[in-house]
User: Fold this.
Amino acid sequence: MIATLDVLLLIVAANAAPVTLKLMLRQEPAWPVDGGLQWRDGRRLFGASKSIRGVVAAIIAAAAVAWIVGLPILAGAAAGAMAMTGDLLSSFTKRRLGLEPSSRFLGLDQVPEAFFPLLVLIPLTEVELWNGLSAALLFVVLGPPLSWLLYHAGIRREPH
Assistant:
């Protein structure tokens, strides 16, 4: 059986991989997912900080963690893709609300990217509903204080 900690590690890996890779590679090459396209409101779809490189990093990191904890690699990759889908949905929503890229919106910044991976992990693997929900909830609760700590350690550019 896959434990809550295993699912939490997978969610964290998917969400940390884009930030980690950006730190390692700086801005190059970081092609934006939205290709610079704008919505009807004149704002970018997602913003420049959402890159193809980040999405790919999340998928690979989640697949690797899945393999380490004994889940199917493809289920891990799908979970990573779902985490990034949640992240992009959050970004899209924040742009429509007129918020700046990398601005903080408590809940919207954590919930989709934590719970969307469960949509593939629970039906495709032996992850039980309780373990998945517990892991996602831990990510939502622990994410903001961890981001704050990483900011003060000089790892993140924003405290959220």
Observations:
- The first helix runs from residue 4 to 25.
